[in-house]
């Protein structure tokens, strides 16, 4: 019977597998040859730690084996699970061992030494075999599943909003165009323009920047929904914080205001952090030790602390009185810069804080205008180190005001006919937010570059693999 | 306290809410005015059935209310939950009722009468408010969550494979091109060709048709994975069975052969069908009654029946001896047509059947060649009514044979350098399959047109909403 390393390891000393004969399959991480034994570390990706296999040189096929027992080779081993000499770890005494796929140690790109993350990106087909990228994969998986659990437990429906779209959520941001036209020989109209009637969708189409507007459609029918899918930005941003393709989680709640929104996002973040603490302890200890010391403590603290809530206006007052020498001196009406956010969350409040009610001129058209006529019911969740982790708002549910805002921002009303009709037929107060999934993983793991928390990052000049 | 209709309905007679005062919020489906009462059916999307609210005309604001109590309006009602006259259904006696968002009955596109699905597609922003599309949304949600549960419970990691790609899984199928070039004024090289160095990814990029190849990368590091994301086909197919944008589930298992693959897909399908039977009974009764009589029975039967397994060669023999007058007479070497698949699954076996070991010339390059030199370890799962529901294979894990096959199919080896390296460094026997998610929903619900089982369908000429 094949068992995974995680199953063997998880039981500790009173392990169900202790003394039992089992088979394990995986890839060799390291080999140490002693006088009469070889020690082989086998990893199958189920856990960070490998299983030590003691290979007795008296095994009948040992002579053939030895030259192929190399880092990277895939093997199957059968033997008894016993306590190691230090009694802390279980190991296997192999009765048989088979090489499944050889690995030439001379050319294998993953050597025992530590590789830079930059280098690992060039071998994205092999990097999940490293400790760090393997751990990222498990944390990413856990955060995704925890996300589904959180919303499903609360009766939210998972909705797949479209990827290809002819409308653009915020009327802002650069888009990827999607076409089946032969760009080497574009069809033209009599007027010499591109003949989009020949394109697949018979008009220009783009990759979505957000599923929010379509999410609002479903919230306006089934009350509470969430999306979880890829979104795209074509900005030429070559930074550690931007991806051209990334995953977003966008809940939308009917009959909900900005306070319900804040309650939900706080509960959501605490739930997924607690899930990782409960289910990915070994990986988190790894990140805490080798990648971002203190990250475990930060998560634990957040889970146990009520988030602070403060209005933008109050936050600006705090910043003005801070005595800090900001690069961008703050003034009411300006968007908060990263330095401001970090001062608020790290120095002033020293805990996550939700900033609400931003000036309407710096926020998107769909946010609900407050009664003061100057602000909108927007919210940003700020956390230590990364700053803004989540953005959201109550949505404008009044038809006349929404039409005015579209006009004010120069957006064509015709493009939003269906969005406006949601306010015409049984309009509801509703609210939602967007979580950049990679930003969330980056926060949880403490990984520095966002390109290392997604399996195959897309950024300017790079869509390999 | 706001409760959802599903919570009230789910308890039956011994309901926790019976005799309690609660608040419900949702949209009016119908209003019937009697002499001294109005009966309002409120639906909030949490369940198929609505809650009947008895509105006494003695309510202080009744006179104002009455003209706005229209189908489509959003309301909040507070009152006691009591047994209806027939004692079968619970209803609410309203103490107060508030119109939240009005709905003009003259212009509201969703009238009481039955609308065609074609018409409803033109109002995709309102159609989830109908019985059928609401039920589809709940079934779709349940199948998605059940999918995650199935794989998570078995230690599979959820992997997000890329949407934008420069490699194409099967070397076949029409692609959507993704670009940030200004198509009205394309940059050109000295030779007059399009200067892709100016494009976002500095080379032509496309929307993925499958995450399989990248899934194999992760299986070759962490053993068992699954993907669940959007995929794209630019074929100009205007049928009830094709979408340009659809979601796929693609598990990939390390140290697994075609038999493990068959075991897994059978367990997967039974798990998700059972989940829907257990969790979506009301919606399934609806589909069984109004959309596809017998669909409930079909699911129940499948869950309790071992799938048949038959080789392609055996299947061809059955078809040859069937005495049926097929439009396409079958011969070894041909791909099975829909009529053949339906004969096998509906007439001959009368249960789901997995056909394996297809002729290598009609299958993709990555499938493992069998020892007979003529067939590959492919598998298709056939089910009643829809035919092929899932396709999969054991993958070719021998470097030399894979290189040969690429060459034979005229695919450029350089494009697959990383895919080939998986066979060079610790290669493993592995297998996987792909489930078209919309096809799965179509099968479960019995909905005829695939455009009605995805929130916002994309097909030739249409990317609205």
Automatic annotation (TrEMBL), chains A, B:
Subcellular compartments: Cytoplasm
Q: Which GO terms describe its biological process?
A: asparaginyl-tRNA aminoacylation
Family annotation (Gene3D superfamilies):
Bira Bifunctional Protein, Domain 2, Nucleic acid-binding proteins
Task: Name the EC number(s).
Answer: 6.1.1.22
**Keyword Ribonucleoprotein carried by entry:** no
User: Where's it mainly located?
Assistant: cytoplasm
* Residues covered by the Aminoacyl-transfer RNA synthetases class-II family profile domain: 138-455
Give the GO cellular component terms, alphabetically. cytoplasm
- Which molecular function terms from Gene Ontology are attached? asparagine-tRNA ligase activity; ATP binding; nucleic acid binding
TM segments?
none
* Keyword entries, A-Z: Aminoacyl-tRNA synthetase, ATP-binding, Cytoplasm, Ligase, Nucleotide-binding, Protein biosynthesis
Q: Which PANTHER family match?
A: ASPARAGINE--TRNA LIGASE, MITOCHONDRIAL-RELATED, ASPARTYL/LYSYL-TRNA SYNTHETASE
Write out the similarity annotation: Belongs to the class-II aminoacyl-tRNA synthetase family.
Q: Relate the assembly described in the record.
A: Homodimer.
Indicate what this protein is called per its UniProt record: Asparagine--tRNA ligase
């Amino acid at each position: 019977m094949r068992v995974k390393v995680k199953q063997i390891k998880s039981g500790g000393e009173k392990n169900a597998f202790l003394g039992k004969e089992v088979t394990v399959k995986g890839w060799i991480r390291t080999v140490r040859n002693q006088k009469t034994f070889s020690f082989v570390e086998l990893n199958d990706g189920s856990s960070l730690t490998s299983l030590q296999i003691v290979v007795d040189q008296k095994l009948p096929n040992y002579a053939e084996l030895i030259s192929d027992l190399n880092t990277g080779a895939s093997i199957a081993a059968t033997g008894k699970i016993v306590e190691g000499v230090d009694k802390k770890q279980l190991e296997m005494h192999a009765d048989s061992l088979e090489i499944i796929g050889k690995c030439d140690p001379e050319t294998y790109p993953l050597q025992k030494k530590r590789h830079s993350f930059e280098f690992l990106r060039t071998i994205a087909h092999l990097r999940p075999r490293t400790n760090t990228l393997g751990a990222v994969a498990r944390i990413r998986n856990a955060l995704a599943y925890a996300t589904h659990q959180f919303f499903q437990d609360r009766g939210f429906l998972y909705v797949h909003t479209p990827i290809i779209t002819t409308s653009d959520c915020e009327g802002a941001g650069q888009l990827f165009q999607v076409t089946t036209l032969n760009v080497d020989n574009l069809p033209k109209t009599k007027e010499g323009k591109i003949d989009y009637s020949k394109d697949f969708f018979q008009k220009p189409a783009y990759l979505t920047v957000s599923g929010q507007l379509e999410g609002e459609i479903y919230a306006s029918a089934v009350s509470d929904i969430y999306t979880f899918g890829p979104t795209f930005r074509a900005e030429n941003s070559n930074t550690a914080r931007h991806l051209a393709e990334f995953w977003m989680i966008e809940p939308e709640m009917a009959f909900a205001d900005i306070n319900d929104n804040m309650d939900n996002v706080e509960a959501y973040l605490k739930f997924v952090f607690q899930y990782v603490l409960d289910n990915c302890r070994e990986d988190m200890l790894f990140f805490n030790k080798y990648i971002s010391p203190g990250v475990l403590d930060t998560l634990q603290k957040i889970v146990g602390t009520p988030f602070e809530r403060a209005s933008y206006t109050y936050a600006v007052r705090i910043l003005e009185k801070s005595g800090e020498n900001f690069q961008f001196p703050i003034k009411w009406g300006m968007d908060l810069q990263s330095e401001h956010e970090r001062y608020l969350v790290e120095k002033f409040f020293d805990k996550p804080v939700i900033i609400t009610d931003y000036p309407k001129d710096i926020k998107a058209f769909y946010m609900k205008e407050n009664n003061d006529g100057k602000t909108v019911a927007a919210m940003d969740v700020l956390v230590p180190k990364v700053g803004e982790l989540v953005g959201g708002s109550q949505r404008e549910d009044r038809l006349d005001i929404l039409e005015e805002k579209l006009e004010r921002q120069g957006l064509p009303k015709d493009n939003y006919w269906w969005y406006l009709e949601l306010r015409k037929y049984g309009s509801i107060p509703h609210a939602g937010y967007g979580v950049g999934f990679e930003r969330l993983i980056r926060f949880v793991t403490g990984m520095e570059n966002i390109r290392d928390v997604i399996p195959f990052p897309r950024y300017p000049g790079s869509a390999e693999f």
